[in-house]
Write a structure and sequence with these properties.
The structure holds two protein chains of two kinds. In chain A, about 70% of the residues lie in helices and about 0% in strands. Chain A is mainly alpha-helical. In chain A, strands 1-2 form a two-stranded antiparallel sheet. In chain B, a hairpin with a 6-residue loop joins β20 (about 580-585) and β21. Classes of the chains: A mainly alpha, B alpha+beta. Chains A and B meet through α9, α12, α15 and α16 of A and α1, α2 and β1 of B.
Chain lengths: ~375, ~625
């Protein structure tokens, strides 16, 4: 029944003018409209969150342009080429991470940026895509579900960059990169025994991990458990964002009318905590709208993954779609006080260049993998 | 037998489909969890959060802790907290910050030079945080504020506890002071701990024990209206505001005797210099005076730029801590230690006689190392007489016999060349020279060579040798204790003001110096007693009801030419020698060891020894200084 959809005859019958253009560009109309809708919603909220700082809003608009251009460009790349590129991208990312780590030792403190003179970027952003690509590349030529040896190899592929990123220290990105790789592993049909075993080991490793955490990272976990214990410090963010969301109610205080946000009670309101601005100004309805948008994107992404023609494409496409949801969940969970404060932006909405562009690159790849299936016939 | 597995595309597709279903279920569960949380916050708890936010916002107001009180060894308060008026500025309420600042200048509440600093400070603090910028207002300033209050948006007059030093400039260099927290301070401390606190320990004990004195801040959630001013709720509503009480910092008991300190400082009679007095039996520093001193209350009040510049540009350098950071040639004060090194190394016996003809020349050299005093020939001297009369020729010869390596090792054991480890920061270690030291300091090969002549002048505490007053006092205490040194300390105990729990700090004994022949201690002490009975310090010790073991010294500020005669009166005051005196008393059962330096004071006997005498009298006899 899956093949039926790929079969082509039905598609041809329903082709309209617009759809023909999209197809020629290897773009997926449904996913694209979901992305555009959420992005426009995000720009709408950002206008309010940015306050007087209109230049911030315009620079985000510029990034949106760059992001969608990159999506269009990447969607044209054949899946074969993406597959060949995977180990290259991964190794390049790894080398850059090592360079950053060494430079960081000299500079003291957190060093995430690589300055190439013309552009500055975080090698960890590359890894958000390169790690799932590498995992999918490694697994696609091996029999699935993966044997224990292959599981070990994939875990190593994940662990190397994650350790380097966590050491920067950037725990949030490290966890997201780890998630993107682990999702590939789970989607490849990893035996439930391994999954539950892994969860059990992780649970046992918590005290050990605690030992290796930086003081500020521990503080964030403790603060989550009891925000009032540190009402002046890290707890301040969580308390203020919950007040913002809670006081928004069902209908919100109205766009540009959030007192928490507009009077600067809410920290980081245009970046990591913009979710609270939505909750305060647009209320529960605004949050539901955003969540529906996210679910639509994830749902369409997974549907596209199902239609992909080989294991590499399936696994990578599935990981891109699900990792996107993990971003959304981690950010929303953090802002609403369900998860510790980790620096993860709200996907497609938060101000900040690299995050938006990386997401769009991911969806570009997703579309490329999906469109390659048509060449099968 | 191993089963060979091959890729099965159909199986993999089926499996992937199952996993997509599983993932969809997980995504749905998470979405439900997020929605439930949003529902909880926005519907169930809505009223609670509205109360905290809309109309009446929750603001966190700091409850600064009381800073620990500092007592001297007799329990007299030397640093306390007194209520004082201070001006605080909240950026968000000021409207136009620059306009408010320029008005403050116009009304005489802020110096023009301070505007930049205050602006920077206000901008670096948290939103809606009131930043104290003028501490301890006097009555006139309060009146001026009252008149112009309506023109000063965001500026509030608050009553806060402020630091006060009742003894003013007495002991200021040991005690240190607190001052307004600067942007620089904030960058190296945990900002959160200083929420609501306007001051931080800058130097001395106030800085070294900052972590103990500070305490833990509390906070209180207050309801404020849209302008950020405190507001009230209607009867009967419960906003569930939280409060955490602050915990006061720990009180300190210092080793300083503030009245003895005052005696010492007054004995300087306006001259520059420093004095340290140590209880040799435990390392307690009873007197720690660097003269001239300064009034720490000026800093606690928020010192103005012009006052600060006046202090830093004063040629007498009142802010320079001469005891902690001043390094001087120890001069003749180290002769007893040199004699001890000679005995210990077996190169000389107490009864060995050197004939002092007024100068000493190294074998094969025509350079003459001279006695400083006019007509300074001592004739035949043994060890006791050499110490008593401070005969340079005796010690030139002794140094040459010992050689620099043995001198260096002996003196390093006594603590020269390294900080004493006193419990305040910034101590310097001076220089205990040696050929190895010279190699590390000089770059040019020809300058790295150690010359015998350099050994000779080290023998009388000159040349490259520099020491701090703390080192001299510690070495003197070591002699007093016949070999048992202690690390000098300024704090004896920490007291928790709420529970009354006392944390006594134990004296820190350093490795004991064992002599091959313990009788040598008494030979040296005997020679030092002779200094105050018939030697160079006899005048200063006259009439004392206890015995003093001491040694005078002079440290050359500039060198005298080979054939010139040194005339104290003709030399400009700033080029005159520093006067030094080290002593302990009573000689047989020492209770106090003292090291005094009077900058450009001339001879140790006339300038420095009377200061030590005044301290001994006050401490041992209780009599006021003559």
């Amino acid at each position: 029944m899956i093949y039926g959809e790929i079969g082509g005859s039905r598609t041809k019958r329903t082709v309209t003018g617009m759809a023909r253009v999209l197809r020629a560009l290897h773009l997926d109309g449904m996913l694209l409209s979901g992305l555009v809708a959420v992005t426009l919603f995000g720009l709408f909220v950002l206008w309010s969150a940015a306050g007087d700082n209109t230049s911030l809003w315009f620079s985000q608009v510029a990034r949106v342009g760059i992001g969608f251009s990159l999506l269009a460009l990447l969607s044209l790349v054949p899946d074969r080429f993406l597959r060949m590129l995977s180990p290259v991208a991964y190794l390049l990312g790894l080398v850059l991470l090592v360079i950053v780590a060494l430079a960081g030792d000299i500079g003291k403190g957190a060093q995430r940026w690589l300055d190439l003179g013309v552009i500055r970027f975080q090698p960890s952003e590359i890894m958000k895509l390169a790690v799932p690509m590498m995992c999918a590349w490694y697994l696609h030529q091996r029999p699935l579900p993966p044997a224990l040896r292959d599981v070990g190899a994939v875990l190593l592929i994940i662990l190397l960059p994650v350790a380097l990123i966590a050491e920067q220290p950037d725990l949030g990105t490290a966890l997201l990169v780890a998630a993107s790789g682990l999702i590939v592993l789970v989607m490849s049909g990893l035996s439930p025994v391994y999954i539950f075993g892994g969860v059990a080991i992780l649970g046992a490793a918590v005290p050990v991990g605690w030992h290796f955490m930086h003081e500020y990272q521990r503080q964030r976990v403790l603060t989550l458990l009891d925000p009032q214990s540190d009402a002046l410090g890290a707890g301040y963010h969580i308390i203020q964002s919950q007040i913002a969301i809670g006081s928004g109610g069902v209908f919100g205080k109205g766009w540009m009318n959030g007192t928490q946000a507009q009077l600067e009670f809410l920290p980081e309101r245009s970046t990591d905590f913009i979710f609270a601005v939505i909750g305060e100004e647009l209320g529960l309805l605004g949050l539901i709208a955003l969540l529906v948008g996210y679910l639509f994107i994830v749902g369409r992404g997974m549907a596209m993954a199902l239609q992909c023609r080989d294991a590499f494409s399936r696994l990578l496409a599935g990981s891109i779609a699900l990792t996107f949801f993990v971003y959304a969940f981690v950010n929303a969970g953090m802002v609403m006080g369900l998860l510790p404060v980790v620096g993860v932006p709200l996907p497609l909405v938060s101000y900040g260049g690299t995050s938006f562009v990386t997401l769009m690159a991911g969806f570009g790849i997703l579309m490329a993998l999906h469109s390659s299936r048509k060449l099968v016939k | 037998m191993r089963r060979v597995r091959i890729k099965d595309e159909a199986l993999e597709q089926r499996m992937f489909f199952q996993r997509v279903l599983l993932a969809s279920a997980v995504v749905a569960l998470i979405a439900i969890a997020l929605l439930s949380r949003a529902f909880w916050l926005q519907v169930v708890q809505h009223a609670h959060y509205v109360e905290l936010s809309q109309g009446n916002r929750a603001r966190i107001e700091p409850l600064p802790p009381n800073r620990g009180v500092i007592y001297d060894r007799a329990g007299r308060v030397i640093a306390e907290n007194t209520p004082a008026y201070q001006l605080e500025l909240t950026r968000e309420q000021a409207g136009d910050l620059d306009e408010t600042l320029s008005r403050l200048v116009r009304f005489g509440l802020l110096e023009p030079g301070e505007v930049g600093r205050v602006r920077q400070l206000v901008n670096s603090r948290r939103t809606f945080e009131a930043v104290p910028f003028l501490l301890q207002l006097d009555d006139e300033e309060v009146a001026r504020y009252a008149v112009h209050r309506h023109e000063l948006n965001g500026v509030l007059l608050e009553t806060r506890m402020a630091r006060h030093y009742p003894y003013g400039r007495v002991g200021a260099h040991a005690l240190g002071y607190v001052g307004t927290i600067s942007e620089q301070d904030l960058s190296r401390v945990d900002r959160e701990r200083y929420f609501g606190t306007g001051v931080i320990g800058k130097t001395g004990i106030e800085s070294a024990y900052e972590g103990d004195l500070l305490g833990t801040g509390g906070y209180r959630e207050v309801l404020v209206n849209a302008e950020g001013r405190p507001a009230r709720l209607a009867e009967g509503s419960d906003p569930q505001l939280k409060t955490r009480e602050p915990q006061a910092g720990r009180d300190l008991r210092m080793t300083i005797d503030i009245e003895l300190q005052r005696v010492a400082e007054e004995a300087f009679a306006g001259r520059r210099g420093g004095v340290v007095a140590i209880d040799p039996s435990n390392g307690d520093v009873l007197v720690f005076a660097s003269m001239p001193s300064f009034d720490p209350n000026g800093f606690a009040r928020g010192i103005s730029r012009s006052d600060y510049i006046a202090l830093t540009e004063n040629p007498d350098q009142p802010l320079f801590n001469r005891v902690l950071r001043g390094t001087y040639p120890p001069g003749s004060t180290i002769k007893p230690l040199m004699a001890l090194a000679g005995l210990e190394n077996g190169v000389i016996r107490p009864e060995d006689v050197t004939n002092c003809g007024g100068s000493y020349s190294l074998p094969g050299s025509r350079h003459r190392y001279r006695e400083p005093r006019r007509g300074g020939t001592h004739g035949p001297v043994d060890m006791r007489r050499a110490v008593m009369k401070s005969c340079d020729v005796y010690f030139y010869r002794l140094a040459n016999t010992l050689g620099i390596d043995r001198i260096h090792d002996s003196m390093a054991r006594m603590g020269f060349g390294e900080p004493t480890g006193i419990d305040i920061a910034g101590e310097r270690g001076g220089i205990m020279p040696s050929p190895a030291w010279k190699k590390t300091v000089f770059k040019a090969r020809e300058q790295q060579v150690w010359f015998p002549g350099e050994t000779v002048i080290v023998g009388i505490g000159q040349g490259y040798w520099t020491a701090t007053l703390l080192q001299l006092a510690k070495a003197t205490a070591l002699l007093a204790m016949r070999g048992q040194p202690y690390q000098p300390r300024l704090v004896r105990a920490l007291v928790d003001p709420e529970t009354g729990a006392v944390e006594e700090k134990k004296p820190r004994p350093l490795p004991r110096i064992e002599l091959k022949d313990p009788a040598n201690w008494e030979i040296i002490v005997d020679a030092m007693v002779a200094v105050t009975t018939g030697g160079t310090a006899a005048a200063a010790a006259r009439g004392a009801s206890y015995s003093i073991a001491g040694k005078t010294g002079t440290a050359q500020v500039f060198s005298v030419g080979q054939t010139e005669k040194y005339n104290e009166k003709e030399v400009a005051e700033r080029l005159r020698d520093h006067a030094l005196f080290v002593a302990f008393a009573p000689a047989e059962s020492p209770k106090l060891a003292v090291a005094v330096l009077v900058e450009n004071g001339g001879f140790g006997s006339s300038a420095a020894a009377p200061i030590a005498r005044a301290i001994f009298d006050a401490y041992l006899v209780g009599a006021p200084p003559p």
